[in-house]
Amino acid sequence: MTERVQKIIARAGVCSRRAAEELLRQGRVCVNGAVAVLGDQADSELDEITVDGKPLQASPQAVYLMLHKPRGYVTTLKDEYGRQTAAELVADCGERVFPVGRLDKESEGLLLFTNDGALMQRLIHPSGEVDKTYHVTVRGQLENAAQRLAALRDLEGEPIRPAQVRVLERRGRELLLEIVIHEGKNRQIRRMCRQCGMEVARLQRVAEHTLTLGDLPAGRWRYLTEEEIQILKGSDTHEG
User: Fold this and answer.
1) What is the largest CA-CA distance in the chain?
2) Which helix (H) or strand (E) holds 123?
3) Residue 116: which of 16, 231, 224 has the closest Cα?
4) What is the pLDDT of residues 47-87, one digit of tens each?
5) Using alpha carbons only, what angle is made at residue 220 by residues 214 and 225, rounded to the nearest 5 degrees?
6) Of the N and C termini of the chain, which has fewer Cβ atoms inside 10 Å?
7) CA–CA separation, 119 vs 11, rounded Å?
8) DSSP 3-state assignment of 126?
9) Pick the catalytic residue: 47, 92, 104, 131?
């Protein structure tokens, strides 16, 4: 069966589909000895596909897991500054897996990892509108905080979709908010709070799609159940 070359590369666990598209633009992918371009298709069982001259390995076993990322870890596979990475915490899963989206260094909570490039793209693409739920402790201008955050439609000159916000608890000079978004722009929640005159003291992602962090300890990971995987794969999200 023929399919787009970038999809085959992603499924083989080399990189995400978006990164595979960049490899094609750079002329680093060949199919049967000829340089491949975006839009080319191939049959992974019949055609020889190479990246930087190296043949693709057989597709690895698909792995799906969630990590409770602690503060202080960056969401990269390798960090040029030598900082601790979330990937190090899942290195013992047996396969090379990639983070689905990001949590910044000071944020914590649920972070998915997989080597299923197609599913990864479906979950992170904005068109999928996958809900992500955060518990956010804020301080500063707390009056009508939830209403003001929910009313935001512009983030530093960039249009955003409305967030769902509610107050969970008041703690002296701090509020614990639940914020649900699905766009996931860079540091979106921190920027939203700053724009409303608030500082984030703690930010934890507690749910994504139908998955919840539950009581998974910080720094630990677990495989997704078969039921959880099938729900993700059967979601109404779609590739853009």
Assistant:
1) 67
2) helix 117-124
3) 16
4) 999 999 999 876 667 899 999 999 999 998 888 889 999 99
5) 55
6) N
7) 9
8) helix
9) 104
